[in-house]
Design goal:
Layout lengths: L19 E5 L3 H10 L5 E5 L23 E2 H10 L3 H7 L4 E4 L3 E5 L2 E2 L7 E4 L4 H11 L5 E4 L2 E8 L4 E8 L6 E5 L2 E4 L7 H7 L7 E4 L4 E8 L11 E4 L7 E8 L4 E8 L9 H9 L5 H8 L1 E9 L4 E4 L11 E3 L1 H4 E2 L7 H16 L8 H23 L16 H14 L4 H11 L11 H9 L19
Parallel strand pairs: 1-2, 1-12, 2-8, 5-15, 12-20
Antiparallel strand pairs: 3-7, 4-7, 5-6, 9-10, 10-11, 13-19, 14-17, 14-18, 15-16, 16-17, 19-21
Helix pairs in contact: 1-4, 1-9, 2-9, 6-7, 9-10
Bound molecules: flavin-adenine dinucleotide (FAD).
Protein name: FAD-dependent monooxygenase
Organism: Streptomyces luteireticuli
GO molecular function, one term: monooxygenase activity
């Protein structure tokens, strides 16, 4: 199945037809994919139903952007490969960069993490910030056009080949028109309607897998206010998992003394969005450190809730009667329980996979080959988030049932997790994998295996480690 775009070396010559790629959705996954596609097509059109704000502001097409977003090291490294200098731009714009585990007061499953020397870093700026920084770089290229305030309403083509999309400007009485394209890439997020659009042109929608722990978020921005004082740590993370159905995050974001506070709960433990309920929820966390901070802090705006946060994987990588030239990326391909902080990083890693497969001189980039490469990237993150969520009591979905291989892996991971808070060898490997900076097999290297299988579970700390163990935190 040809992908619809010629290989770069065949794009020369006056007689060649102009090649056009359309990207559905101009959020992080769509922008990064457009940045890659511009080197393989004559022009790229990004169709985005929102009108972009001028700066790093909330927009309705990305309702989750009011909530805490961690940018993991693996994702930041991928961004840097695509857009060199971008991570420095993010820092310049004020994205806080936190050393892990050194800077973070972290509680998980009954244990405080030792604040040993840094093995990785995470960015904690607001969600609109990286999108804005990426947007201004990507859209500065004249080969990329964006149709703002315009939505895709369907696909054009048949089960054999994609020919374009149907688009309509938003607002009453707008006409639908066709935008022809040689390649269409769906980056419209977890609520993508592409499966229904594929059915409408006689193609097969992808099989959809779900695992839903019933996660709910409630988030508010704050200024630290008088009395909160200088903290001896830069963030607090009370982790939510199968053992602890409520969690919370207190983290700095860009701007003068701005913080984000997130309350999270699995099904039956949803955090309220009213003032009193929010504070009560914070008080119900295993340690009062966030609740005490909130008492002195000054709220900036209201509390926002979010409830659509299951793991959803669309198996575009499996064989099916789907058109050549149609691809999916980002959350339209695979959406995750957000407590693992993976979606933006997977969007960036998918764009790297797109770049590498389209540019591979040894292999023809068929639709299937390119899609499988992006799905393989998402799979690493999927295994982490669904592996964790399968242990959440009451989890639902058609992909919950463990496979035979999951049982020994779960046994091993349980030993890993109990050693992470106090054993730096295991903790560092776990953080690298969780940051998508190393393959999941990093947990099975000889040094880690030895520590996991033969070292005792470290004694838990009796109190939160208010100071880092290394002075150069
Ligand atoms: C509550 C929550 C918290 C999260 N926390 C984290 C985190 O800590 N770290 C992390 O890395 N990720 C996190 N994520 C995931 C992260 O938000 C996404 O992965 C990230 O936004 C990139 O996703 P995307 O570009 O695929 O889709 P989205 O960002 O969802 O964007 C989809 C875009 O498509 C547009 N669109 C939709 N339909 C159409 C249409 N028909 N026509 C035209 N345009 C259309 C929308 O307007 C939007 O711009 C979180 C997600 C949620 C829900």
């Amino acid at each position: 199945m040809g992908i619809g775009l010629p290989r770069a070396e065949r794009t020369q010559g006056p007689d060649r037809a102009k090649r056009h790629a359309v990207v559905i959705g101009g959020s992080l996954a769509g922008l990064l994919a457009a940045h890659v596609l511009k080197d393989h097509a004559d022009s790229v059109t990004v169709v985005e139903r929102d009108r972009y704000p001028d700066g790093p502001e909330h927009r309705p097409g990305v309702p989750q952007d009011r909530h805490a977003h961690l940018f993991l090291k693996g994702g930041v490294d991928a961004l840097e490969k695509l857009l060199p200098g971008l991570s420095e731009e993010l820092l310049q714009e004020g994205a806080p960069r936190l050393a892990m585990p050194t800077d973070i007061l972290q509680w998980q499953g009954g244990d405080w993490y030792r604040r040993t020397a840094a093995s990785t870093h995470v960015l904690t700026g607001s969600r609109p910030l990286p999108e804005w920084v990426v947007r201004r770089r990507v859209l500065a290229d004249p080969r990329i056009t964006v149709l703002e305030g315009t939505e895709v309403t369907g696909l054009v083509g048949d089960a054999a080949r994609i020919r374009g999309v149907r688009v309509r400007a938003r607002g009453a009485g707008q006409e639908t028109r066709t935008l022809t394209a040689d390649l269409v890439l769906d980056a419209s997020g977890r609520s993508s309607r592409a499966p229904a659009w594929l059915r409408a042109i006689g193609a097969e929608p992808p099989h959809e897998e779900t695992i839903d722990a019933g996660l709910a978020y409630a988030t508010r921005f704050y200024r630290s206010g008088p009395g909160t004082g200088e903290l001896p740590y830069r963030a607090v993370y009370m982790a939510i998992d199968g053992r602890q159905p409520r969690g919370g995050i207190l983290a700095p974001v860009e701007g003068d003394d701005r913080w984000i506070v997130l309350m999270s709960g699995f099904r039956g433990n949803e955090p309220p969005t009213d003032e009193a309920g929010y504070l009560d929820f914070a008080a119900s966390l295993p340690h009062p450190v966030i609740r005490e901070w909130l008492e002195k802090a000054e709220p900036l705006g209201s509390i926002h809730g979010f409830r659509k946060a299951s793991n959803v994987r669309r198996r575009y990588d499996l064989p099916g009667r789907r058109p050549a030239g149609f691809l999916a990326t980002g959350e339209a391909l695979c959406a995750f329980n957000p407590v693992y902080g993976q979606g933006m990083s997977v969007a960036a890693l998918c764009a790297v996979a797109l770049r590498d497969t389209l540019g591979d001189p040894r292999r023809t980039p068929t639709t299937r080959r390119v899609q499988r490469a992006m799905a393989a990237v998402a799979r690493r993150a999927w295994d982490i988030s669904t592996g964790g969520d399968r242990a959440v009591p009451g989890v639902t979905g058609n992909a919950v049932r463990p496979r035979a291989v999951d049982r020994p892996v779960a046994w091993y991971l349980d030993r890993v997790i109990r050693r992470v808070p106090g054993n730096p060898v295991v903790g560092d490997a776990f953080r690298e994998v969780g940051s998508l900076a190393a393959p999941n097999t990093r947990l099975f290297t000889p040094k880690v295996l030895r520590a996991v299988l033969f070292s005792p579970v470290p004694a838990p700390l009796s109190a939160p480690p208010l100071l880092p163990e290394t002075p150069d935190a």
